[in-house]
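Researcher: Let's try something more involved. This one mixes different molecule types, so please make sure each is placed in the same coordinate frame as the others.
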Amino acid sequence: MDMDCASIDLKAVSLGEASAVEKRVAETHVKSCGACREELSRLELTFASLGALRDEEIPKRIAFVSDQVFEPTWWQRLWNSGPQLGFASAGLLAGALVFHAAYPRFNLLFQHRCRKRSPNSRV
Amino acid sequence: MIFREVEDRDLITRARKGNVESYNLLVSRWEKRVFNYLYRLVGNREDAFDLSQDVFLKAYQALGKLEDPAKFTGWLFRIAHNEAYSLLRKTRLDNAELTYDPSTANLGGGRMYPMELSLTVESALAKLTPEQREAVLLKVFQGFKFEEMAEVLGIPLSTVKSRLYTALDLLKGVLAPLSEAK
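Model: All components are placed in one shared frame. Result:
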């Protein structure tokens, strides 16, 4: 190997990390350099061997759906949903308005019942 | 590949809103890759499976902190890396470095069957330091770019290259003669 060889990153080329220019320079160099050609060939053989490594099957599926721990609570679901939270707020507001509007009637009704149950209370 | 990335992003967005089904789909897509990465790193199936579960649990809990869903893969492997190393630190599984001896390079010699070759590769990988092995796993088996590896491992790019290149030199010494023999 001469100085040119040292400046060429054959590993980056074989790993697909070299730029187009670096790759072209390396290809040109390899054609005229036996040592680098052999080095590149050994790298390719190494990757071919690594490719023979079989993937291990996972012992069992990692499941989350069935696990209640991962289920968001009703409050989280509500909080995470803009429209739902909006409707809930509007519902609460409407309820408060209705109650406020109806309150005098409830008050009258309550007083009327109290008078009926205890006639002596007038005295 | 592009469609797959879009789908992953979509699943992440839905999972962030509490859609467990979407997250479950993400898990089913990535569990085998994460498991294999962890298995090759810690060298034990049970530990690798337990760690895989922890990784996906932590990823689910921290999904809201993932700023860019396009970086999900690197982010997930970063969690896996952290989990593996906390176990390795506990069990002190710092294997001896592979010292290449030319006299034993041609393990078994002659033609090797795929299963044999797979076992030889496994054995050669096991003799690398965990750091070197992880660099090979991320680059060769998981297809990360150098920059992505630097992010996953939390180290400078120059260190990534140095670890990987040293590992490749060691593996080359053992594995290239095997392929030549084939």
